[in-house]
Specification:
Blueprint: H1 2-19, H2 24-31, H3 35-42, H4 49-59, H5 63-74, H6 77-87, E1 92-96, H7 105-109, E2 115-118, E3 121-124, H8 134-138, E4 144-148
Antiparallel strand pairs: 1-4, 2-3
Helix pairs in contact: 1-2, 1-4, 2-3, 5-6
Length: 150
Amino acid sequence: MPKHIISGLKYLAAVELRKNGYNQNQIAEILDMNRSTVSHYLNGRNISVNSVEVAEVIRDFCRKDFLTMVYTLLKDVNQTRTIVKICSNTSYKSNIGNSCIACGICSDACMMNAVVLDDLKAKINDEFCCGCLICGEMCPTNSITITEVK
């Protein structure tokens, strides 16, 4: 069953990329799939409706649960980042307060690699942030706030 759910998630990502103007070769490269599978997905072949429905439910989880579930299924951080970023239609804005002590816990906890330490303060690249809030939950000084902007 996990392989079917992964197929559903990759289908959703392929459809989203197609909407954004990517061709089948580009989609195949981004999703680490062969072009023929992408073609089948985009034409509604070789993908079960149940797999897509389950993937849609997972996509609609809260961001933290979505990220965790995708990682659990794929067992690959880079593929997880790719799927989560493509399937997330929301943007986030971060703010790091002056109480940040640059301990690095937030950076280590971020599976999306959105948090880095710079000049003794954490910085979040909002482009990569998926809004899971794990960094803020792990922050010992409660210096991180993430808000949804789109």
